[in-house]
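I would love for you to help me understand the pair of lines that follows before we discuss the fold together.
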Amino acid sequence: MHNQLAISAIIRCVLKPHHSLLRKEVERAADLTASVVLEQRPPLCRTLLPLHRLFQEFRRELEDHLEVQDARLFPQLLDLEAALSAGERPLPHMDDVPEALRLLKHGRIALTSVLDEMRELTHAFTAPPEACECYGELLDILAAIQMEIASEMRMESMLFPQAAELMELARRCEANAREHTSKLRAMHAM
């Protein structure tokens, strides 16, 4: 099945390299954010306190976003795909996948919004000359996270039509199975 290869490949590409890299980079940024906030003096503290708040919000949004993917959507799609390939009925997760996709799309909006705010606040993740080295490193990490999020979202954008195709196939299979069951019952009733 073409769809199976595409979905499996996309999930492997998103799950393996992107999620682990994002989690590592976010942890590095969290450590730096805490130390940078303590080290800086005016006028940078006017930027750092809102940046710290935005980063904490981003971190929560990212964890929610990754959780939707890792614990819900990806396993559901893979289970549904495997059940379709094996001809199993009833198909698992038929009602769960659309909700997980909706949550994923909402998470994308929230993540990009917070990233855009951080980028604006830091003048495109550019450290002023008076900033400490840690602040420059933090901004470099945030810029890398933004690039990694953009890459992941491109991968997710490839997943959405594949998931829609898989759901349509599942609906058709379910409808065919119901029709077949109805015909068998009608034949047995004769």
